[in-house]
Amino acid sequence: MIGDYARGDTAPAADVLWALEAHLEACATCRGRLAAAVATEAPVTAALVDTVRAQLAPQLAAAAPRSARRYRPNLVPRRLTPVAAPWLGTALGCTLLALLLGAVAAPVPLGHASLLVLVAPVLPLGAVAASWSRPLDPVHELTASTARAGLPLLLRRTTAVLAVVVPVLLLGGGLTGTTTAGQWLLPSLAFTATALALGSVVGLTRAALALLAAWCAAVAVPAWFADRVPLVLQPGQLPGWGLLLAIGTAAVIVRRHAYEAL
């Protein structure tokens, strides 16, 4: 398999290629075999690699001291993109803004709508979309072409978003008394799973923005002007949100290979 991979004369199946490249990432022995195979069985490729190395060596040597000062691999989580901080900061900022507006708003009788209740179900969608967006990730092409890209990487980034947004909402809702986790947590997870499922068809950014726009137009804005908690966020609707979460999760599992081609 390594010989065929080095020569490039036989195109392996997609799953075989993925497994081979994922194995090469973690196995130094097989990387050595690949280097030997390229040197002996693919002289054109070896010559191309040597030419590129010779052209890049002066530039890399000149940039090495500055890069070493600006980037510290041991301080950066291995599974997060180097641009994770901006979109996580955006998610945190939106969450704090919703909490602030909910805290300074005039008190309303129990059962009426608060801004936090209305935006919490869809608050993670923007950050989830940004975590897998070409314009917002300058190394998107490099990331998407690696053997471990696709749904596993997207799920890790989605988990990072939820790990920032959900605790802040829980803490803020408890401190302000404007909302309870039962009103928004399950809908939020259901929206996230639905966005991932639809994203495998139309792209994650389009799916997240479409769900966000639909929620604001059909639920959040009318409920805010009517000053009441919408019917879909009443406790009796939680089984429906659980069903939507299950359907979205199942669709993501069925469509798990689609993100490898997006």
From TrEMBL:
Keywords: Membrane, Transmembrane, Transmembrane helix. The keyword Amino-acid biosynthesis does not apply. The keyword Transmembrane helix applies. The chain crosses the membrane at residues 80-106, 112-132, 153-172, 184-202, 209-226, 238-254. It comes from the Bacteria. This is Zinc-finger domain-containing protein. It comes from Streptomyces tateyamensis.
